[in-house]
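Ticket 4471: requesting a sanity check on a complex prediction with zinc ion. Repro inputs:
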Amino acid sequence: MRSPLLTLPKAELHIHIEGSLEPEMMVALAQRNGITLPYESVEAVRAAYQFENLQSFLNLYYAGAQVLQSEQDFYDLTWAYLQKCAAQGVRHTEIFFDPQTHCDRGIPFEVVHSGITQALLDARVQLGVSSALILCFLRHLSAEAAMATLEQALPYRGSIIAVGLDFSELGHPPSKFQAVFDRARAEGFLTVAHAGEEGPPEYIWEAIHLLKVSRIDHGVRCVEDPALVNYLAEHQIPLTVCPLSNIKLCVFDEMAQHNLKQLLDLGLCVTVNSDDPAYFGGYLAENFEAAELALGLTSEHLIQLAKNSFKASFLPPAEQQSYLQELSVHLANIESI
Ligand SMILES: Nc1ncnc2[nH]cnc12
Ligand SMILES: [Zn+2]
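Returned structure tokens:
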């Protein structure tokens, strides 16, 4: 039986909305938009999800995103993910989107943004799930292209809380984007960055010192540098760790070898997240469950992870407190059963 702790109220802080495109929706949107996919069936799409590393996944993810064309497509994609949140106790979610993946093939920024934000607004009212939006720059493209994307996003500043950095990490250090992130912070955006997923600890240091990030996305390679581990613990810089993703992309050979528990026990502010749930075999609850089973996480670990998810979020302190209170009530109810 599933542990009742797996349905704890929690937040998700690392989810690429394009990575929630399930094969069924990919095939349906391809049909709706008259696009021919290189797969004959939903099963064939799913069968292609065997990855050796980050790049082999990104090639497929980027190709899959081509079926997203209209505002309705972006709405449907986002709404499907938000329904999963509601079903799994995810009370708040901070969602990445990659405008360059869409704008570079002629889809207007406005179309992408309105489809996603309309679904977020509807989820707040109809599902009681709160959210924030984070714009990610594709790091294998140039800093100039990222700056142009930032400028395109300025009119939408009120609905985008932060900027981030994703895609191929190796060879594209955070320092490449220092000027873009300086400008983003000057324009009022918070910052996050993928670092230490495949890249070395130096990339995590750069994200902290040069990009002045509030959180590190992944960050699991921090353990290779004890001074960095101390710094992350002392400053409580959150890591948005994605267990199933790390196994699917061969960052760890198997879940039993994942360092999530080690990082928690070292006092780091670790959170659990799904990254690209349609590609990696699970949403947030499945990530919690897989990590709990393989690593023997205790109730204390699971409760700490749920608390960390709200504390590491970009919610205002009063809203964080109110979710933490909801969590306490939930725990008290479980204890009294
Ligand atoms: N795991 C990941 N790392 C970097 N970029 C991504 N984009 C989507 N998923 C990603
Ligand atoms: Zn990611």
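Notes from triage: The longest strand covers residues 130-138. Leaving this open until the requester confirms.
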